[in-house]
């Protein structure tokens, strides 16, 4: 790490890169233009970005080349299963994007329909260490066939009896005649850090974490404004999603009506608005929150 500056590892390109740069931008981190394809420097925060392959991020953070990194939990877990040094890294903050699931799957009408059926079978995967750990914890002995990609075609090509692969929507599994039968890992993007950064990263790491928390909270939160009859206030409060203590203010010229302002920490559906309206709410507005700090 550069003296006085924290180095953050970010995927060079891909879903994690897009989500990571968007999170940094919304957190107010302004990056200077650079021709260097490896490094980016923040202008307003003592932070440097190192742009590398996502598979390499855990190793760079564990070695101390970077103090922290934004990485998929699936990549971190696979690396941690292989390396005690990576296993010592800490997840500082879950980031809420790039969500996916590592699942076991097999042909719909095939002999493998459960974890127990994997005994003595071959499993194709890009996550051999995680798969081996999962099977060992359940006392299953199976052959693991490591593949760099196109894992879903392995059963059709007679390479393996089942697969362990990332699933987002399930469309790829369905297109290849496969069905998932067990979840190995629920994954999302996470902010990781090594001990040196946690102990000496100080204000910069704390600033990043607090701003990230604020951005994540604002994405999940809405601001609701409405007018309502004073005598139906309790009824409306009961249907406001995730609202702890809404602000209630008088309406000029109306003694029987109040204005309600509420920060809702749960998703606001059309059905919610219809419930509020049925309870007497009028002039209902739902607004996004750009920034939020507890």
TrEMBL record:
Compartment(s) where it occurs, according to its Swiss-Prot or TrEMBL record: Cytoplasm
UniProt keyword annotation of Protein biosynthesis present: no
E.C. code: 2.4.2.17
The protein's enzyme class: transferase
Reaction(s) catalysed (UniProt annotation): 1-(5-phospho-beta-D-ribosyl)-ATP + diphosphate = 5-phospho-alpha-D-ribose 1-diphosphate + ATP
Residue intervals of the Histidine biosynthesis HisG C-terminal domain: 219-291
Entry keyword set: Amino-acid biosynthesis, ATP-binding, Cytoplasm, Glycosyltransferase, Histidine biosynthesis, Magnesium, Metal-binding, Nucleotide-binding, Transferase
Pfam family, one: HisG
Keyword Iron: no
Molecular-function GO term, any one: glycosyltransferase activity
Record-annotated ATP phosphoribosyltransferase catalytic domain positions: 53-213
Cofactor: Mg(2+)
Regulation (activators, inhibitors): Feedback inhibited by histidine.
Protein task: Catalyzes the condensation of ATP and 5-phosphoribose 1-diphosphate to form N'-(5'-phosphoribosyl)-ATP (PR-ATP). Has a crucial role in the pathway because the rate of histidine biosynthesis seems to be controlled primarily by regulation of HisG enzymatic activity.
Family: Belongs to the ATP phosphoribosyltransferase family. Long subfamily.
Protein name stated in the entry: ATP phosphoribosyltransferase
Organism per entry: Glycocaulis albus
Record gene name: hisG
